[in-house]
């Protein structure tokens, strides 16, 4: 179970990093397309536009990092709930099997071991 959990962690991290890179690339392309039309008439960008672009880029990155952090926490919560549900189902299955044995006086119930 620990090995599976580690594999899921690795896979989740890889997926989230991929999403992060795609979002950064998408926002970078969007930001560049907004700035480039202003630059078409001159070769030097005004300092205020450059600073504004940098600030917007940093804000976008912070928002992306925040979104990824939220996704990561949601995935961890879902994994925790999944494990709790699995434990509950195993407990219910054990209880059902015990009740079946009691109700049939210890006689093997056909199909009991098939689950």
Automatic annotation (TrEMBL):
- What is the protein named? Alanine- and arginine-rich domain-containing protein
* Gene name of this polypeptide: aard
């Amino acid at each position: 179970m620990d090995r599976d959990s580690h594999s899921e962690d690795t896979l989740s991290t890889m997926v989230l990093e991929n999403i992060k890179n795609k979002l950064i690339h998408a926002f970078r392309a969007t930001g560049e397309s907004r700035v480039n039309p202003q630059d078409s008439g001159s070769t030097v960008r005004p300092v205020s536009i450059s600073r504004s672009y940098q600030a917007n880029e940093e804000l976008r990155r912070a928002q992306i990092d925040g979104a990824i952090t939220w996704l990561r926490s949601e995935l961890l919560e879902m994994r925790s709930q999944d494990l709790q549900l699995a434990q509950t189902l195993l407990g219910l299955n054990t209880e059902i099997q015990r009740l079946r044995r009691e109700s049939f006086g210890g006689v093997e119930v056909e199909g009991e071991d098939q689950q």
